[in-house]
Each structure stands twice: as structure tokens, then as C-alpha cells.
Amino acid sequence: MPLPPVSHRKAVNHLRKADPVLAKLIAAIGPCRYDVKTFGTHFDALCRSIIHQQLSTKAATTIHGRFLDLFAKRTSSPAALLAMSEPTLRGVGLSRQKTAYLRDLAGRIHTGVLPLDHLYTLEDAAIIEYLIQVKGIGVWTAQMFLMFQLGRLDVLPDLDLGIRNAIKKAYRLRGVPTAKRIAKIGAPWRPYASIACWYLWRSVD
């Protein structure tokens, strides 16, 4: 599916001029290497997000691999998932709750309630509204989908702990900033908030 073109140079130049604090981070970190790393289909990307919740990367990767092994050519699909029994899904290591989340996701896509194949044509806010209707998918997961699956360049995940801590450190705040404070600080970054967040994450790595 088409992704919007990424212009790192244009984005970085904008951020340098718009925010002197961010300009210092950019100078220290160097060239922007933000990239869109799609995880198969959009359906598989969302399944992967659900499976990875509250698990270590190693455990989640193992379970996700077993999950893909259930499908022909390791390509998941809503219809194929709905045809599987709960014991089959639980057998790869999924909890009862995550099994329910995955089936809810598949059901919404299969019936057309969630127009996954056409999400890329919608505005960011509309995509988030669609996704958070799915059990197990919250605003943060939807924002990560926007940034790293669809390549949207103006996403500001104000609930992300890494972003909050990075802003606290970079802007020398006394406490962890609220969503309102982050929105105010991040206003000059528009329309390249995703690129700003990439630098903020790197600053605390």
C-alpha cells in the first residue's frame, strides 16, 4: 500500500529552525535514520502488536512465530484466524484475553467494520478512532501503527514513557510532562512530530 514520501532533510531543517532544544539534539545525534519497517500486512502488524503486549521481546517473538506457523505460507488473515478454534490459538502460547483480542480484530475486519485495506486513505485521527474500537488496541498502539506501519510523519505519542522522559531531560523539566505540556512543547514540530520523536527516543537510548 502506498506510503507518504519521507523527506528527512526537509523535516530536520524545519525542526532545527522551530526548536533550539531539538536543534541541539539533532546536532548531537546526527543524521535522521527514521524508517518505516512494516511487519507484513496491516493485519499481521496489528496482531503482532497485540501479541507483544506485556511480554518480553523474546517471549513475544516466539509466540508470534508460532502464531504465524498456524497459517498457510505463514501469512495471517482474518478469515483464517476466525476459522481456528480457541484451543488451537491458545496452543501457541496466547492467553485467553489475547485470543479474544485477536478474534475481535479479525471479526471487525472480516465484516468490514474496520476497513483495514483502506485505512491509509484516512487522516490520522480517523485511523486512531477506528483502531481503538478493537479490544486490546489503545491510542499508543494506534499511534505506533501510524508511525511505523503507515509512515505518518506528524504523530506525537504523548503517552509514550520514552518520549515523556526524553522531553523531561531535554527541556530540563522538574517532573514528567503531562499530555497538555507535551502538546504545547511539540506544537512547533508540526508537521514533523514523528521525526522529532525519533530524535527524542535516540536521546535516551
What fraction, in percent, of the residue positions are helical?
A: 55-70%
Question: From N to C, what is the helix and strand string?
Answer: HHHHHHHHHHHH
Largest sheet: none
DSSP strand tally: 0
Number of domains: 2
CATH superfamily of the largest domain: Hypothetical protein, domain 2
General form: elongated
What would you say this structure looks like, in words?
With 205 residues, the protein is mainly alpha-helical. The chain has twelve helices and no strands. The chain folds into two domains: 8-36 and 154-203, Endonuclease Iii, domain 2 (Orthogonal Bundle); 42-148, Orthogonal Bundle (Endonuclease III, domain 1). The chain has helices at residues 8-18, 20-29, 42-52, 57-69, 78-83, 86-90, 96-110, 124-131, 139-148, 161-170, 179-186, 193-203. The chain starts with 7 loop residues before the first helix and ends with a helix.
Quick rundown:
With 205 residues, this protein is mostly helical.
Question: What are its keywords?
Answer:
205 residues, mainly alpha, Endonuclease III, domain 1, 12 helices, elongated
Fold topology:
Layout: H1 8-18, H2 20-29, H3 42-52, H4 57-69, H5 78-83, H6 86-90, H7 96-110, H8 124-131, H9 139-148, H10 161-170, H11 179-186, H12 193-203
Helix pairs in contact: 1-2, 2-12, 3-4, 3-7, 8-9, 10-12
